[in-house]
Amino acid sequence: QLQLVESGGASVQPGGSLKLSCAASGSPSDYYSIGWFRQAPGKEREGIACISGRNQNTYYTDSMKGRFTISRDNAKNTVFLQMNSLKPEDTGDYYCAAGRALTQRAADYNYWGQGTQVTVSS
Question: Around Cβ 85, how many Cβ atoms within 10 Å?
Fold first, then answer.
């Protein structure tokens, strides 16, 4: 069974950058598309970006384009989310998830990590 572990969350000032990692184990991760999601306090979980397994096609939620970049290193079974020009509204818990389709629908993902917290505040 695939297991996912996120890391890299931290407290940063507005305008700062963070790079989140999602490490996969237990199953060949390049079979799966990986998506990044976030959940702000009091809000619903929203999709950020996703990347397919072997072809590494990417898809971004429109509001996330430009500041967020998803990438993966299949040799290391790790998917990254580079976040630049962070804003206070980017604060929340960030999750990675694995599924067979390249989609932004959380319901289409079968495996989830435990999340990593990002706080953007001055």
Answer: 12
